[in-house]
Amino acid sequence: MSEIQSSKRYDLEERTQRFAAEVRQFVKKLPKSVGNVEDGKQVVRSSGSVGANYIEANEALSKKDFAMRIKICRKEAKETRYWLELLDTADESSLELQRSKLVGESTELMNIFAAILRKCTVKD
Question: Domain 3-121 is of which CATH architecture?
Answer without folding.
Answer: Up-down Bundle (1.20)
